[in-house]
Every structure is written in C-alpha cells, then in structure tokens.
Amino acid sequence: MATLDPKMVLVVEDEPLVRMVAAETLAAAGYLILEAGTGDEAILIISAGAPLTAVVTDIEMPGAVDGLELPKAIETRWPEIAIVIVSGRRLPAPDELPLKAVFLPKPYSPERLIAAVGAAL
Fold this sequence. Notes:
The protein has 121 residues and is α/β, with parallel strands linked by helices. The protein has one domain: Response regulator (Rossmann fold, 3-Layer(aba) Sandwich), CATH 3.40.50. The chain contains four helices and five strands; from the N terminus they run E-H-E-H-E-H-E-E-H. Strands 2-1-3-4-5 form a five-stranded parallel beta sheet, with helices on both faces. Helix 2 runs parallel beside helix 3. The two termini are 24 Å apart.
C-alpha cells in the first residue's frame, strides 16, 4: 500500500511560545513542521528549496520582510505554496492579501488553525 507524503508547513512567528504552540498543533494534526522567527528567515528557508505545501505567518514581525510582504513574495515566486496569515492586532484590507491566502484572526483555537491550513491547501 502506498503512503501519502506528509505535507510540510512553515510556521513564521516572532513570539517563540506562540510559534511553538502553532507548530505542535499542526504536527499533532500530521503535518511536518519547519519554523522561522522572522519573514527574512522564512525567505531563506523557502529559497533553500524546502518542500513546503503551506506557510502560516503572523503579520507583525521584526526584520525587512513582514507578514504581508512575505505572502506577496510567496505568491509571486512560489505560487504552489498555500498561505495562512494570522494577526491579533491588525485586520488586513482585502487588497493587502494574496487572492489565495486565508486570514485567521488571533487568538485562534487549535481546531481553527488546523481548519485554516486545510482550507488554504
């Protein structure tokens, strides 16, 4: 019997505890997880060729690439990667989000995070 390849998700969040909880939630749901603390770090991971199927990114992060610029770069350079954008402070305007992106407001439950990644895929 053939096994399905697990889907790999990159969690991009500057708050270590929030990133850890999101990563553990998605790992428990069967996803393989990579983590980044900034958008700049995420770009490096994606550029290195990690076989990602989705990225979950917070909007407000330190560094040159924030959580709205990162999805735009992904949409342009890696359109096969699904995008979930999260924020507890900012509600982005529809024209700020890539067409295929799913927005998830914080705080979110583990079930809502898993559902948002599933919907993005």
